[in-house]
Amino acid sequence: MKGVFARTSAKGRAPVRRLAVLAAAGLLALGACSSSGGKKGEEKATGGAGPRLKIAMVTHSAPGDTFWDIVQKGAKAAAAKDNVQFLYSADPDGGKQAQLVQTAIDQKVDGIIVTLAKPDAMKDVLARATAAKIPVVSINSGAEDSAKLGALAHFGQDESIAGEAAGTELAKIGVKKALCVVHEQGNVGLESRCAGAKKTFSGQLQNLYVQGSDMPQVKSSITAKLQSDKDIDGILTLGAPFAATAVDSVKETGSKAKVATFDLNKDLIASIKSGDIQFAVDQQPYLQGYEAVDELWLYRTNGNVLGGGRPVLTGPAIVTKDNAASLEGFAVRGTR
After folding, report:
1. How far apart are CA 51 and CA 83, in angstroms?
2. C-alpha 165, offset from chain centre
3. Secretion signal: which residues (predicted)?
4. Same domain, 178 and 115
5. 74, 111, 122, 202: most buried by Cβ count inside 10 Å?
């Protein structure tokens, strides 16, 4: 370029300089397109951003269950990414959960995420969602009923396989006689966990049914069982808050029972590190919320269905004292 300018007269330099400025501006414009090209390219591929979608999640959770806080964090992260309005409601009673799903149908949402802890209670309302052409995705529980009830996909762990993993771990830590504490009677997922554990556990495992919405009652039931049967040397709970209560019962009674559980939260990680809890079976609830919202967005904008008609597994992952520290940071921020 130096040689070209050297041969250009003073009178002719201005047009050349203007061309150089225009070329530079063109390069800047290309750079700007490149920096935002991913989003614009995706919008072009899916026919534009389109109207904002509204997605409702209706679960069977009870108040105070930290597991569902993690599910919601995952769902909200995906909703923020996909520009989705996210609505959440819950009730542990199957009939009331179905009523909440009907409310979502009446609101003409663009997609519904449900749990199928009590699939019979959800059958009719999900048929109405299908009739209204509202796509449904299930998470967490009811994988075996998901497709039959019209869901596009299911995100969660196979509860029987997860239970088998727990039973194997109980045997590894030397437990001979254990309780499987079921905090919601009739929940098919919880029942499957205990049944799976019985398959692989070499000792005795009996179910103890407690009222999950009443933690003092949960503690009282576990404490009474430990006091009446001194041979119990293991307790398997099916949710992180119940593990902490079981630890309190063990300490109060002077029992030597080892406590293990399903699911994680930040307090549970600390208990695993301290040895109060032996292990946890993690189903990665953040993934369940995230992938469910993302699946409905993908289906609405590009016709995609994940899993090919089979459940998409998010667990189980076994967390012990050996690997708990590596997950602690994620647990503290509320995503594991």
Report:
1. 9
2. 19
3. 1-34
4. no
5. 122
pLDDT for the residue 269:
95
Neighbours of 258 (CB within 10 A): 20
pLDDT of residue 213: 79
∠ CA 109-113-114, rounded to 5°:
125
Residue 69: CATH number of its domain:
3.40.50.2300
In whole angstroms, what is the distance from residue 251 CA to residue 181 CA? 17
Report, as ranges of residue numbers, the positions in the chain whose pLDDT lies below 70: 1-50
95, 101 Cβ separation under 8 angstroms: no
CB 137 within 8 A of CB 306: no
Residue 49: its pLDDT value, please? 53
pTM, entire model: 0.78
Residues 153 and 163 reside in one and the same domain: no
Q: Which residues of 94-123 are buried (b: 16+ CB within 10 A; e: fewer)?
A: beebbebbeebbeeebbbbbbbbbbbebbe
- Per the listing, tokens 């600390």 go with 270
Same domain, 94 and 163: no
**Contact of 306 with 291, CB cutoff 8 Å:** yes
Own/partner long-range contacts of 98-106 (Cβ < 8 Å, ≥24 apart): 98/122, 98/124, 98/125, 99/125, 100/58, 101/56, 101/58, 101/125, 101/126, 101/129, 102/128, 104/56, 104/58, 104/129, 104/134, 105/129, 105/132, 105/134
Question: Is residue 262 classed as helix, strand or coil in its secondary structure?
Answer: strand
pLDDT at 314: 96
Q: How many distinct structural domains can be found in the chain?
A: 2
